[in-house]
Amino acid sequence: MLAVSSVCLAAETSKPYTIINTAQYMGTGGIDYVYADNDARRLYVPRGNSILVFDLDTLKSAGEIPETGGRGVAVDPKSNHGFSSSRPVTMFDTKTLAVIKKIEVQGGPDGILFEPLSQRVFIFSHSQPNATVIDPKDGTIVGTIDLGGAPEQAASDGKGHLYVDIEDKDKVAVVDVQSLKVTAQYELGGQGGTPAGLGLDAKNGILFVMCRNPANCVVMSAADGKILATLPIGKGSDGGGFNPNTLEAFSSQGDGTLTIIHENSPNSFEVTQTVTTKSRAKTSTLDTKNNRIVLITTEPAPNAPGAANAPVAAAGAPGPGREGGPAGGPPDGQRRGGGGRGGPGFLDILAVGR
Average pLDDT in the 306-317 region? Predict the structure, then answer.
């Protein structure tokens, strides 16, 4: 059975990635991160003053949490509590989507992550404090962390180490999740700059650091920060990850591309595909059940009615993006306006798979 499973996986991974499914919804307000709750099969997209919830398998609407907003979402699967990276932070029940409480925090919440070993939620900010740590059971703040710079994406190895892109310092910070202390800073050594996306092969201890300037993936040892390889990616990365099922890292970019990198071995890596997605679809998340990468973007719809979140279309490949501003431009360009200018506009969800 194991042999047959290996053959099937090899055959599947030999196929090219394509856009498997799309959905489009009318609404207003800006977007930033997208989050897949793989256990509950839900997809969260903060937009404007709401958190929109979708079925991860079908991309159909599954609800909304109004008066919340924020940049991203993280979920604790044990307590079934979700959190928004907003100020104040919104804590909600993932089963009913009811708001539980608002949590006052400092700084400007941006990225967010649930860390499985410590069972805590880490909320990242470009200003001090760089990270605020919350106990998801009751929403209490258990500490803050000075990361020495502006954090973007983070990844946990599940063994006590949290790796965080430090965007303005061209570094990756290593955090002990129990002591909440920075234990190391890995320099990118000029091979990449302005790191934004991050993938982690936890089993083999390999980091995939997706950079904007220059636009490279810097592959590093998670143990000591040694640079193992440098590979080209598209322009304007703002999200990335690693799929242990396929041994592939990915980077989503504002120039309308998705870069796929295969780990041939712990010492050999190659770009195997550049998928055309949609303009400014630069944040992404991983659907681990279907081995699909889900991306989001917005585009203006100047003649559309202002009815929020009405479904417009689903399935099929998306057309060219029309969002204002250059592709791969400043990361905050899309975050502060639906359709690039505050709405009304379309939210596009793309599921890329084989």
Answer: 44
* DSSP symbol at 5: H
Nearest in space to 85 (alpha carbons), one of 56, 44, 118: 44
Residue-level pLDDT at 344? 87
CB of 97 closer than 8 Å to CB of 58? no
| pLDDT value for 10 | 55
Question: With respect to CATH, is domain 17-353 assigned 2.130.10.10?
Answer: yes
Give the model's pLDDT for residue 14: 79
Mean of per-residue pLDDT scores for the chain:
89
Pairing of the two strands 81-84 and 73-76: antiparallel
Through-space distance between the first and last CA atoms of the chain, rounded to whole angstroms: 22
Cis peptide before 136 (omega within 30 of 0): no
Rounded Cα–Cα distance for residues 330 and 145 (Å): 26
Domain residue ranges of the chain, discontinuous segments joined by +: 17-353
| Cβ atoms of 46 and 72 closer than 8 Å | yes
State yes or no: pLDDT of 318 exceeds 60.
Answer: no
Evaluate the CA torsion angle 181, 210, 126, 300 in order and state its sign.
negative
Query: Which stretch of 26-35, 38-47, 252-261, 338-347 has the lowest confidence by average pLDDT?
Result: 338-347
Question: Going along 77-203, which residue ranges are E strands?
Answer: 81-84, 89-93, 99-103, 109-115, 120-125, 131-135, 140-145, 151-156, 161-166, 171-176, 181-187, 195-201
**In which region does residue 69 sit, left (phi positive, over 0), alpha (psi from -120 to 50) or beta (all else)?**
left
